[in-house]
Amino acid sequence: MPVEFELAYGRTAVRLALPEGDILQVLRVDDVPSLGDARVSLAGHIREALRNPIGCAPLGRIVRPGERVVIVVNDQTRLARSELFLPPLLDELNSAGVPDANVTCLFALGAHRPLRPEEMRSLVGDETARRVALVNHDCDDPAGLVTVGRTSRGTEVRVNRLLTESDRIVLTGSIVYHFFAGFGGGRKAAVPGCAGRSTIQQNHSMMLGPGATAGRLKGNPVHEDLLEAARLLKPGFILNVVLNGRGEIAGVFAGDMEAAHLAGCRFCDRLYGVTVERPADLVIASCGGWPKDINVYQAQKTMDNAARAVREGGVLVLIAECPEGAGNQMYIEWMRRYGTPAAIAAAVRERFELGGHKAYAVTRLLAKAEVVLVSAMPEEDVRALLLTPAGSLEQALCIARSRLGPHPTTIVMPNGGLTVPRLAPFRDRRPVPG
Fold it and tell me: So where are the chain's domains?
């Protein structure tokens, strides 16, 4: 008897039916409820977190009347539900004597494209957009960047000038696994989020070293360098959230940049870490829809998660609409210039470059499994990225079965952008954050 699934694809969904006997596992995050009920509203939970923070004084006692505050917020590639937590955050600043006119929301774009005005408004919500200034970070604007120091690993830390000219910095965002920084959130809003391209590039080159992996902070050179860089800015406060599988706020972590972030990472680890009894012939993974599948550059994170659950020589079907295509011009140029996983790996070690690092991150997985991409991209564009194109999920399954036989053991990941598989024999050796 077939088992049916509905898998997110952009802002819509696709249907999947598999023979019950083929299904090895369905990897889902725990069904954690959202915060906010009849007794305590979501805004109430936010206020409680701001007034009883982790590792530092309440926000209202940190800021001073009349100070200039920069709030760093996620861009469109990372769902954070900023529109829900920003109004109570602004109200708390108002109560401490900081008027809306003294507050700027700075979008942590890193090296991503600038946001259009309507995208900014959508991300922060109409209320916040009416109340405060909204500014894109630009990693390539020398006039907008200031050098604040150098880390012990040699990274020159250049950041957005607004951060150095403000009296207080509040970092916000969501915490998820990150494939080489361990976890998102916390320090990442400042660096790489509001850093210059050269700073981002120097830090991200450490992804080639040991320890740079999802779920690991201690001994992770990328994380430790990011943390050291962010400390140079002395952020006064962070407000991070962890979302459940439905994109609702399930946890709020406010306070000290390090202590509150670590608490959020531990919650994220419990929520999103899943155990795989054994690798499957076939893994079918949806990114979880928009914005995680906005382009291949972002969908790679799902690919990296799903690759942990597939056997050597297996097939990974990635369901990602990718309306913005590859998502990075340098990524495309590296694929055209080098063309094979071996050549890309050699090039990135010889001359690390943003965009090239994504080509490496994608193609290194191809040594383990073939990746079939179900997307809206033209076939020739998908093939140029060394992936196998499929115009539909049905076509992708036909391709997979032609490689593996009619009944491959199958793992389904409905929200592959969040779930991080771990093999059962290593259950007791899970990397511990911090």
Answer: 2-29+277-429, 42-271
CATH number of this structure's domain 2-29+277-429, picked from the four choices 3.90.1640.10, 3.30.420.10, 3.90.226.30, 3.40.50.10800: 3.90.226.30
Cα–Cα distance, 254 to 257 (Å, whole number): 8
Cα separation, 66 vs 98, whole angstroms: 5
Give the DSSP H/E element, type plus range, for residue 279: none
Single pTM value for the model: 0.85
Q: pLDDT under 70 in the chain at which residues? A: 37-39, 424-434
The distance of Cα 398 from the centroid of its chain, to the nearest Å, equals 31
Distance set, CA 321 to CA 20, 144, 296, 302, 313 (Å): 27, 34, 9, 13, 25
DSSP assignments along 349-360, one per residue: HHS--TTHHHHH
SS3 240: strand
Q: At what angle do helices 341-350 and 356-363 cross, to 10 degrees?
A: 140
* 3-class DSSP state of 265: helix
Q: 347-381: buried (b, 16+ CB within 10 Å) or exposed (e) per residue?
A: bbeeebbbbbbbbbbbbebbebbbbbbbbebeeeb
Lookup: tokens for 151: 């880390």
Candidate CATH numbers 3.30.930.10, 3.40.50.11440, 3.40.50.2000, 3.90.45.10; the one for domain 42-271: 3.40.50.11440
Residues with Cβ within 8 Å of residue 130, at least 6 apart in sequence: none
Residues near 95 by Cβ (< 8 Å), separated by ≥ 6?
60
Q: Are 141 and 106 in contact (CB under 8 A)?
A: no
